[in-house]
Fold each of these.
Amino acid sequence: VEPRDTPVSFEYIAQTQSPQEVSIVARVSGFLDKQLYTEGALVKEGQVLFQLDRKPFVAQLDAAQAAWDKAKAANDTAMANLKRVKPLADLNALSQKDLDDATGNADTTAASVAQARANVDTARLNLSYTTIASPLDGIAGAAQQKEGAYLSPQNSLLTTVSSLNPMWVNFSISENEFQNYRDQVAKGLLAPPKDGNYVAELIQVDGSMFPQTGKITFVNPSFNPQTGTFLIRVTVPNPQGALRPNQFVRVRLNGATRPNAITVPQRAVQEGDKGHFVWVVSKSGKAELRPVVVGDWYHDSWF
């Protein structure tokens, strides 16, 4: 039993969270034609998930294109007329009113062309919205609407896609725990990692260790007034998708040490009416009872 620097771990109950959880919604109203993904499957960015009936939107685009062509033709005629009228007006062969009418007609038809072009762009954009793709790599949720349903602003939610890599792991520390931690650091009973970065290990429900480790990436600067706790977030790589959103795990933070700590095998510590004690052998070879104040566990030993 000798004083030595001993590693310390802190363990908390945590829950996973996807850094990006996107709601997939229909941006135009229409009939849902096809569902093109498997619910609960991994999807890639740009993969088509749903297809709305395109026919009404193709017709709208054709009508807008025709209106644009008509407006352009009217503008071409007005511009040609203005080119004829302007030289004659300069020679006083036509009145100023004729020039003003020609100029106004040219400006009006030019504005009609701009409006028609905007209508074409809108119709083309609405047509593109009938193909609904995933905006990110992730796992797709259940479909909220079935094929044949009419989608409107009231029922536009189709599904959700949640990113998996990396994964956030959130846990909370109480105000008392945090204050105890600070007190131990101030008294020299606990030494945080030199770089301040704890290494986070994840223990899954079945007791197995998650293969990747993570680091603390966010600490809420304020306490939650309802719970008296503050949130800490660990970010871990999740390339194989072993962790899923809203999964419960345990987080073990490694990296701190107890300087000159004395560890005693757990089986050597007994408990009596006056608290914990151990038996030691004196210099004369006799067994003596020594009261002790125990701290945390380290493997199968007490601090």
Note: The chain has a mean pLDDT of 91.
Amino acid sequence: RLPPAFAERIGLKTTVAAVTEISPVVHVTGVLEFDEQRIAAVGSRISGRVRQVKVIEGTKVEPGDILATMESAELGKAQAEIFSVKARAQYADADERRKLQLLKEGIASQRAVDLALQESTVTDAELRAAKQRVKALGGDVADKSLGLMALTSPIAGDVVKVHVFRGQAVEPSYTAFTIADRSTLWVRLAVFEGEVSNIRVGDVVEISTPVTPDEVLTGTVTFISSVLDPVTRSAEVRVIVPNETGKLRVGQAVNARIRPSASIKQALSVPRLALLQVDGNPTVFVAVDEHSVVPRTVVLGAESRDIVEIKSGVTAGEKV
């Protein structure tokens, strides 16, 4: 029995055990990673030597921003070929016009005109091919500085890695810069096989960090692995987390609460605050009257953030 003064002082409250909808929560931990769909590796398409590096780690870039400039003999040779072919094409075009004029005056033959037209067509095609080759190598067809090329960012984001320095020789297989868009991040979660079956793509996930547990971000499940890890008996669940503010950092540990949509059910439940551990057993206090209670051991089922399923020990309608 509880004295009225004591019950008032501790703020004793009662509620009725009732059948309600329970959305169980799966608690797991994970580590933030870059969104692999928002990361870019920038490198040279040809061999060359770095002339100037224009960014450092942490620099914010937009698409097309120059990261570094390079010198390449291969590119210079391809650009020089444009000037050579362009001169031949101009001469062939002029010769074609001259032969046409001579044909009108009855001085040149039709065959001479046809040959001039053929030569003009061939040189025009060679000029287009030469320009396309320079573009394929990453150069500028209009650049008069032969052999110079720029490495540019293909996406907007932050420079997270700089792998080159001035004067360094670079091969096509080498990654010079890594650019990442941190507006969204990934969390890979390992969920045990008994819980992963109820999780679906699109399920809501609440993410918080141990440093700021009160700041909760909402993400969504985008991928559920169909293969279980043979050692841990868990499956990977990937979550996309918004990070427009930039507060989250790659490598940071997070706590995740997944709300599996497939496991929502109607069940007898009581508030989580009504549960206590007595001698290691989950216990609720059933109200006999206004100021007296009886402790009763219960068997728990599914749990959500605020309520817990009671499988046995309490019946619907009883006050706890």
Note: The radius of gyration is 36 Å.
Amino acid sequence: MSSRTHFAAPLLLAIFVALILYVSLYPFQFGADGPTAMEVLRTLSWARASRGDMLNNVLLYVPLGFCIALTVEPRFGRLTGIAGGLVGGALLSITMEIMQGSIATRVPSLTDLSLNAAGALAGAIGGSAWHALGVRMTPQANPAGRSGAIALVVLVLWLIARLWPFVPDASLRQLKRAVRPLFTPEFGWADLTAFFVGWLVVAQAVFHLARRQRSVDVFLIVIAVVLVGRTFTAGNTLEFAELAAIALLLPVLVLISRVEDRGRSALLAAALGTWLASVALLPALGGARDVAVELPALGEFLGRNAPPPAELAGRAFSYVAFTWLLAGTGLFPHVAAGLTVLLVVLLGLMQAGAATPVYGWIDVVIAIIAGILVTRWRK
């Protein structure tokens, strides 16, 4: 039994309970002469539900079981934590079913209850796994030369890229739209790799910002902010590739936690640089073998349109993070900045003649700004 507690778990637990109350009791139009609790329990049946509704019921209670397990397990052990997640989810679910009996537009059922309990159990198992791996994900020592300002910029840019346009939408319509892509979980390896590398970099930034004892909990909060934020911001959806990348991330963080800070920076810089290069090279490699590569005309290069805000923030995240990671390997910041600009220029030139080039003049401008930030703020 580990005595390591998680300060984030009670906070997130309160948030997810409030979320369940909102989703379960909306539109909060309780009938004055509603049935009693016993009457509702006697009328519960195995009502049929669509695949979408079934998935929603499971997903809604996964975070609840996860947070209950993280709260209970450090004090009372793994089995108690998992059991607590299951029992807590079932009790909250049956309470919601009873209260829904007084709302004309809601239909309480045993189907919902069983799916909610299954979701809570799955979440509790996940919470127990996070608790077991969490202490191993943390770097063995606080990073040297923490450069907190740049790490904060990296984190903020990631949040902007994932949560833009920051327009809250707490409607059930947005909730259903956000989880709809999970009904048919299809994704490409490119998406999975992009999210995997991005979240690895975010983890490194969090480990530079937070104290070693609390860094994993802070990372958990960042994950929750992104996933909940994408669920309740207009136009955004959850992406199965991102959820899969986060799941794959945990064992990788355990493996690299024993690598000293410069080594981790080098590994992440290599991963991020490889990804940036692949974005430019893979489309060309997939085309005809005998295509001649020509440098673009200056007018064509400057005429490439700037990306939308979310994509702009994503590119800024990549270039600031790449420069910061290069500097973290021991390179002088000015050298790291120069290498980033050189890489971006070369990638832009490599896409000569592409119908929809990914890199353009705006990337060079962002890379230069990223280099200036790192050289001025890194300590």
Note: Confidence is low (pLDDT under 50) at residues 287-296.
